[in-house]
Amino acid sequence: MKKVFSLITAGFVGGLMALYVGNYFSSKETDPQVNQSPRAILASSATNAPFDFVKAAQLSTPAVAHITVEESKMMAQQRMNKRQSNPFDRFFDMGDMFGQEMYPRSGAGSGVVISEDGYIVTNNHVVENGDIIKVVIDDREFIAEKVGKDPSTDIALLKVEATGLTPVVFADSDELEVGEWVAAVGNPFSYLKSTVTAGIVSAKGRDIDILQNDKAIEEFIQTDAAINPGNSGGALVNVEGELVGINTAIATPTGVYAGYGFAVPSNLVKRIIDDIKEGGDIERGRLGIAGNTIDDELYRSQNLSRDTGFLVEEIVKGSGAQYSGVLPGDIVIGANGKTVDTFEDLLKVVEIARVGDTIELDIVRKNKVITIPVYLRKGI
What we know:
The protein is of the alpha+beta class. It has 9 helices and 21 strands. It has 3 domains: 55-60 and 170-279, Trypsin-like serine proteases (Thrombin, subunit H, Beta Barrel), CATH 2.40.10; 63-159, Trypsin-like serine proteases (Thrombin, subunit H, Beta Barrel); 285-375, Pdz3 Domain. It is globular, with a radius of gyration of 26 Å. The relative contact order is 0.15. Mean pLDDT is 79; it is low at 1-49 and 87-99.
């Protein structure tokens, strides 16, 4: 399948309880009609566990905030005016027909304190539908301002006027292993404040097409730690209480926890935060090339000069690639100093870039290696 770049550049503290149930049948020396009753054995001592999450909870809970979001009357009116300008919205939106969309919207979620002076990271979907944002941290309430957002990763950065807050410590999410224990810290259902649940890392790098964005960047950590509505924007931490992800989504047929939760990796979160601090809202650009990873069949059928890389087959009109001189038939073998053997290699470099960034492409053309700087432009 052709890979297209035109649209991409860019939520157990306590004792361990084990329940053992068995059927004990009589031996040959006993009456064969008499069976022993099943037994339940409680192992309530914490010393029976290889570790616990007490330390992790103590370190991470003070850094997790409860966020409530409301839509002001002005914002609600602006939204209605925008909807009414579209005749299809006016005639086919049943919610609007019955007046449901006339009322200001509200919501709640979680956030994670990342600095002593009041920077808080959360999910964009937690705060995107409101302009009155209240944050509660350790029983202290603040009014927060949006610093910026990145819809493609569902990350938003808030700021409150405060000092002396307890920030979370970032872990290297690349070092996280499948099977490793983690804890989700957040505020499920809004009223269960500072809840800690535990599970393991079930998978890494999940792309589940859950972000409603045509330039979505998904490389989720999957966990079976219980995550429910209200946990969004909360912390996923390791046994040391260090942040490994921002809880973002659940896969469920019921709307509540069903065993599958997903978190944005902390390393990606950190890069997004830095970009937002530098330039505010992030807008992903587009590279503007389409093609295929070179495999054995493609290498032989087209008599290519290289058996690895990304073969450019189409250039999107008006894209950065077109204006920079990239041509069909070029083979991309590097990007920003990283080796490109496959489409995925190129994607890793390009997907988090933003409008205005320059991607240095190493290209093989007519058996010669050339470097072409591609300035990323806006695109749809």
